Amino acid sequence: MLSWKEQRQLEKYQKDTAKLERRQLLIQTMTPQELLKYDQEHFEYKNAKIEEKRNHKQLSKNRLSKAPFMCIDLAYNALMTPSEIKSLRLQMLISYSLSLKALKPCKLMIKQYNNDIYTMSAIEGFSNWDADISQNSLDEEIKGLRENGQDVPYIYLSGDAETEISSFDVSKIYIIGGLVDRNRHKNAALNRANELGIPSVKINLKQFAQLKSSQIIAVNHIFEMMTKLNENGDLKEAVLEVLPGRKVENAEVKQ
């Protein structure tokens, strides 16, 4: 029985092999002149794709240089099982990918990162990520800001908060609790915000959709909702576009 990763690798190998076989069959039918033209066009196509990728990376870098931060707080490791930590790792990878693709992105910030737990350094290119990844905790940073008489820009996102968010304030840094716990730990993000002494707000999903269960959603879904809110200023559109179908009771959303 192949693992998910092995299955993906096998499918890629089969796809690449089939593509190569089709190319070889095509070449066998060509005259020398046609083959020369084909090779030239193939060379130009590959160079164009390389240049397109280079331009895309530069464009993403330019966008992120001006983007507001979105922070993932990894202060909950002791509350999660190894499989939940693995899920959170994937959600952080998706969030980073979203930050690169968005027209008006949020730049990923990760606090209290521990590579022994999340092993993201094993990912190719991780050392070159355009993100703010730190082993320091929010506790340390916020304490330092207060001791220096500086404003604390952080606001914690929690489904249990009383205050509802309606717009994206680019002068603030919104925090997503890095916790995957199947809703075992009630009020975890709200309690964390209170410990840090910072405000908390919630995305009121029930305002826009009838949910099957709680308002707890994955880290990457929150990251994407906030990114879209930053892009167009429309919370309803952001929620309905991102909210997974499995969370919604029926196809009709609240008006």
UniProtKB/TrEMBL annotation:
It comes from Spironucleus salmonicida. Keywords: Methyltransferase, S-adenosyl-L-methionine, Transferase. It comes from the Eukaryota. Residues 55-250 form the SAM-dependent MTase TRM10-type domain. GO terms for molecular function: tRNA (guanosine(9)-N1)-methyltransferase activity; tRNA binding. It is an enzyme of class 2 (transferase). It catalyses: guanosine(9) in tRNA + S-adenosyl-L-methionine = N(1)-methylguanosine(9) in tRNA + S-adenosyl-L-homocysteine + H(+). InterPro entries: MT_TRM10-typ, MT_TRM10-typ_sf, tRNA_m1G_MeTrfase_euk. One of its GO terms (biological process) is tRNA N1-guanine methylation. This is tRNA (guanine(9)-N(1))-methyltransferase. Gene3D superfamilies: 3.40.1280.30. Its EC number is 2.1.1.221. One of its GO terms (cellular component) is nucleus. The keyword S-adenosyl-L-methionine applies.
